[in-house]
Amino acid sequence: MEREGLLDLGNRKGKAPGAYCSEFSVRQRPFIFANSVGVRDDVRTVLHESGHAFHVFEMNHLPYIQHQQIPMEFAEVASMTMELLAAPYLSKEFGGFYTNPEAARDRVEHLERIILFWPYMATVDAFQQWAHTRPEGADPDACDAKWLELQRRFMPGMDWNGLEAEMMTGWQRKQHIHRSPFYYVEYGLAQLGAVQVWRNALHDQAASLARYRQALARGGTQSLPALFATAGARFAFDAGTLREAVELIESVIAQLED
Ligand SMILES: [Zn+2]
User: Fold this and answer.
1) For the chain, what is the domain count?
2) Predicted confidence (pLDDT) per residue in 100-114, tens digit
3) Which range marks the domain in which residue 165 is found?
4) Are the CB atoms for 99 and 91 separated by under 8 Å?
5) Which residues fall inside 5 Å of ion ligand 1, going by CB?
6) Is residue 55 part of a domain?
7) Residue 166 forms part of a structural domain
8) Residue 192 belongs to some domain of the structure
9) What spacing in Å lies between the alpha carbon of 215 and ligand 1's midpoint?
10) 26 CA from centroid of ligand 1 (Å)
11) Which of 77, 82, 106, 119 could form a disulfide with 154 if both were Cys (CB 3.0 to 4.6 A apart)?
12) Among 118, 98, 116, which Cα is nearest to 43's?
């Protein structure tokens, strides 16, 4: 991608913010846009967008553009799984960016963020369901009160002491709520799929990678549950699947902290 000029990763004055992977359908090539400034989050961002880029490469054999329209819940499995599958290669000895202790710390923070994301996702999803289906959703004070209620329900362990105003107005700082009604739960579903593919990779990295690539190559030619199954995961969000994922993440965090 670098050789073909398909990466624009560095930040520069006047460049639009954000990071994404785009696609040139005729050339059959992905293009990654980012704003890297040399911090660890940039590594994660580029890995994430690389997952989307691999999806484009793997789907190139599909003859019709309609076959390449992937459900959002699975598109993010491609990217979030890449973040996790790359974990063994983050340290310098395997060609990566970090010393071994830095790689371990990066992985711990990544895994912690995955656990913290699910209750936050639940807050955003429940808030959207409420705000976009009830007249009170047009009242900012009612929105503050609802956000507070949902934060207490889904993230009871967070200490917001002295920052109540910031806590209540959290809904204002989430662009999805304002620009993409009902869009957010997809990330939670995709993350659970990605953790399952990674679980398989902890036992057999090569086999899990092969299934991941196979699922990417299917594009949008399978149903969502079938795409998850091809990748070696279950399309689910039940307590049992979530518990298994969280317990695995916690045990790997404990190993890395050792
Ligand atoms: Zn993405």
Assistant:
1) 1
2) 999 999 999 999 999
3) 72-258
4) yes
5) 79
6) no
7) yes
8) yes
9) 16
10) 22
11) 119
12) 98
